[in-house]
Specification:
By secondary structure, this protein is mainly α. It folds into two domains: about 40 residues; about 30 residues, no CATH class. Helices cover about 40% and strands about 0% of the residues.
C-alpha cells in the first residue's frame, strides 16, 4: 500500500522557501546524503536532545510503513525494536471488493 502509514504514525509537513530547499538539497548532495527525510528527522532529534527533551533512540529511526519489512528483519537481525515488531505483526487492512 503506497503512502499508507501504520496506526499511530503521523506525517509532519511544513512549508519552506524555495531557496531554503535548494540549499538544503545542495548541501545533502555535496555530503552524499541520500535520505532527506532521515536527515530532517536526525536534525530534529539532535535539537530536541540539546534542549533536554528525552526521546527514546528508537524513535529516531524511520517508522515502518504498512506492507514494508525492513532489511534488518529480513536478515533476521535483532536490532528491530519491540514497537516496530508490534507494527509488523499487525495485519494490513483488507481490500474492499467493489
Amino acid at each position: 500500500m503506497p503512502n499508507k502509514r501504520a496506526e499511530g504514525q503521523k506525517l509532519i509537513a511544513f512549508p519552506v522557501d524555495e531557496e531554503f530547499e535548494r540549499r538544503l538539497n545542495e548541501g545533502l548532495r555535496r555530503n552524499h546524503i541520500a535520505n532527506k527525510s532521515q536527515f530532517i528527522r536526525d536534525a530534529i532529534f539532535e535539537k530536541l536532545e540539546r534542549l533536554g527533551v528525552d526521546i527514546p533512540l528508537e524513535l529516531k529511526q524511520a517508522p515502518i510503513r504498512y506492507g514494508s519489512v525492513p532489511s534488518s528483519v529480513v536478515r533476521g537481525s535483532d536490532q528491530v525494536t519491540e514497537a516496530k515488531k508490534l507494527i509488523l505483526s499487525r495485519k494490513a487492512p483488507q481490500k474492499r471488493k467493489l
